[in-house]
Amino acid sequence: MIKTTLTYLVVIVVFSLGIYAIIQAGSRMIPVAASANESGNAVSLTTQTQNPESPALGKSLFANLRQPLSLLLLQIIVITVAARGAGAIFTKIGQPAVVGEVFAGILLGPSLLGWLTPPVTSFLFPASSMGILQVLSQVGVILFMFSVGMELNLESLSHQAHSAILISHAGILAPFILGVGLSLGIYQLVAPEGVPFHAFALFMGIAMSITAFPVLARILEQRGLTGTRLGSLVITCAAADDVTAWCLLAFVLSLAQSHGLMDSALTVGLAIFFTGLMVFLARPGLRRLLEHPNRTETGNKGLIAGLLMMAFASALFTETIGIHALFGAFLAGVILPPPKILRLPLREHLETFTAFLLPLFFAFTGLRTQIGLLNDWQDWLLCLAIIAVAIAGKLGGSSLAARSTGLSWHESLSIGALMNTRGLMELIVINIGYDLGILSARVFVMMVLMALTTTVMTGPILSLLKRWESRRAVPMAENEIAV
Question: What residue segments make up the domains of the chain, in order of their start?
Fold first, then answer.
């Protein structure tokens, strides 16, 4: 053992001395083929390297930290820690974790951190790094939309078709027409220059109509309503709402991005053709593949990779034809056949990625949200008007439609409150509008505040309705005893 160690040390020393001697001998050499100018540069580089006034170690480390990869890794760490911490805090106070994660993104942006310590924000999130952060966050949202599509069970829509379709469509049409009507009053005040009224108005209508299906499902789970009649009905309503709203969004985007009637017709035609191809060709093919008796666990891993590639390919197609990549990812999830043997491991893989990447999207949204743009009472009054219209259309429309199907006021208002939850889905939609230039920076801030307000208010409204129902039940029970 000692002999081996000594031999190893001798070899290391001999090789180290040899390398050192070679480097010393070569450091005095100048390439023969180098021109005078090149030789001068080489000498000047050598002199600069040996200059005792070269940058200190601290400056060198700081420069390394400013490299694109180092900066991206630092951003991911800061965003993830902040989102996880805020999500945990909001969960403890009865709010969905997604609300806390969105707030964390806003706090990291110019609304708080950038206002308190501008140098820190400019160091962590320089303008040159935002493109990379946006692309990475979009990948997370694409995977998330694929997962949302997977969670929709289209076959369940037929079980409560009458009530679900009536409530979900009322929950879309009422806020849609109110949003379009509101656009008449605010278009000239806040719309970006060059955006036609029809694009702005239709997009505002869609933005008012969105329901956050994943957040709604988690609220039902937290409150133990998943297996109840109310829970099943509202999940079905939200599923129908999501499908309808995203189809309408695809149509609106095709109109907004087209340069004429023929261009718009081509986009809509390609979207309809692609949807039919996915539903009537890809879905049956996937079903046969999943039900193949010779499929092994190793084959499952390859199949999961193939399904992810299908989601990205679908997203690429819809992005190319001028709708948006998110619609293609959503459609790829919707057409996935129901066997749980593959959906469960696929969902686990997706949740791992989305839990890591979605906070980047929240942070990117927060960095765009400059609450300071609302700098007078007129802006805040307009923001309150947008929030009021959104609540009246979604909560009011869904509640009245539910009541018309024979449900009690308690159940109807509970459905309206849950359908009024917008959360992450709303943020995705308004980011699309901001990227396309349909929404100005001021309207973007107002819509972000609307999304947060309607999501935060869901829990308290459900708690108030529960207490109201309990108080109504007590007098009824006393009357029955008296009789």
Answer: 85-471
